[in-house]
Amino acid sequence: MNRSLPFLLVGGFLAVLLVVLLWGSITTTIDFGQKGVIFRTFSGGIDKKKIFDQGFHFIAPWNKMYKYDVKIQEANSMMEVLSRNGLTIRVDVSYWYKPKEDRLPLLHDEVGPNYHEKIVNPAIRSATREVIGKYLPEELYSTKREVIEDEIMNRTRKSIAGKHILLDDVLIRDVTLPTSLQEAIEKKLKQEQIALEYEFRLEAAEKEAERLRIEAKGKAEAYDIINRSLTEKILQEKGIEATLKLAESNNSKVVIIGNSRNGLPIILGDNK
């Protein structure tokens, strides 16, 4: 019997046991929509050249894998801001962001996994206060909302430039004004809508009147042309043509050829 066999069996058992115990430390799974960045404890820290894709991976037990969600993420921030005239406005801002996938090692090294709390959210809040402070409440409430959203997004993008983060969109979901101001704005908007509707009706009436005037003018010109073309000789010829057609009718009649005032024959007849 080979004396080394028991030692081999014990060694194998210990190796398997060690793998089982360390399995969670030497393997990792990156889910869909994620990327991984590895920290190499004994070889330079963050590996800035390698980004791990989704799937199963082996790693050394002394290294550590950091996983980042690289899908578009949504967050919102509610805050109170001052408008241009000093009134306090409560706004609810939603925004969409994600880390730049090819910059994940740099993002992890310079900012870390909590980049939203450290970079994105403060930048959004600061840009929102700065932009809304340039406008009146009624502009935010109605006419300039899209312009304000674009300004907030552009200002935030400028603020986080170089931070390895992508800001996809910004949306003002809700605006809460003081009750008295909101009622005044709604009343003003309603009056403006009534005025626009009146202007539209007035313009439509003017266009219809112009159409009728042009139509009447056209008819008058047509009648004038017809009147100028109907000379006495033409009328006589037309009368003769009509008389001849009547004479060909099966109804009994008497046609008297005479010298009437208009020079046309006189037709006398009775229908049986």
From TrEMBL:
<keyword id="KW-0175">Coiled coil</keyword>
<feature type="domain" description="Band 7">
    <location>
        <begin position="25"/>
        <end position="189"/>
    </location>
</feature>
<dbReference type="Pfam" id="PF01145">
    <property type="entry name" value="Band_7"/>
</dbReference>
<feature type="coiled-coil region">
    <location>
        <begin position="195"/>
        <end position="222"/>
    </location>
</feature>
<dbReference type="InterPro" id="IPR036013">
    <property type="entry name" value="Band_7/SPFH_dom_sf"/>
</dbReference>
<dbReference type="GO" id="GO:0016020">
    <property type="term" value="C:membrane"/>
</dbReference>
<dbReference type="InterPro" id="IPR001107">
    <property type="entry name" value="Band_7"/>
</dbReference>
<protein>
    <submittedName>
        <fullName>SPFH domain-containing protein</fullName>
    </submittedName>
</protein>
<dbReference type="InterPro" id="IPR000163">
    <property type="entry name" value="Prohibitin"/>
</dbReference>
